[in-house]
Amino acid sequence: MNLALWIVTGLLAAAYLLGGAFKVITPKEKIAASGPSARWAEDFSAGGIKTIGALEVLAAVGLVLPAVLGNAPVLVPLAALGLVLMMTGAAITRIRRHETTFMVVDLVYLALAAFVMWGRFGPESFTA
Questions:
Q1: Is 126 part of any domain?
Q2: How many of the other CB atoms lie within 10 Å of CB of 28?
Q3: How confident is the model over 51-79, as pLDDT tens digits?
Q4: Which are the contacts of 106, defined by CB distance < 8 A and separation ≥ 6?
Q5: pTM of the predicted structure, to 2 decimals
Q6: What share of the chain is helix, strand, coil (3-state, %, to 5)?
Q7: Where primarily located (predicted)?
């Protein structure tokens, strides 16, 4: 179970680090024009998109660094909780925009973050 949690955590951290950095450094117009799955950006200000990106980068760091350094490992499930909340918001945005096809990916990310949160708060807690 611990190995599965680490694998999922690593994949989530990589995805959110790259996706968040992209949102932070790329202008809103380029994000919205990057494809049909990114049209959600039309609903947010440039600052809002940068904030979402910064939160994704912080969550990616929070998923890995506290556990690796052994410093405040309770931050790992809290970072996963933050991602669960963020992906819930993403799914709600998709529902409002009638983009149910793209919402499936958001729900997969939500489920993976929920798995890490459950595992690190519960059976494979770093504080146990």
A1: no
A2: 17
A3: 999 999 999 999 999 999 988 999 999 99
A4: 87, 90, 91, 94
A5: 0.92
A6: 85, 0, 15
A7: membrane
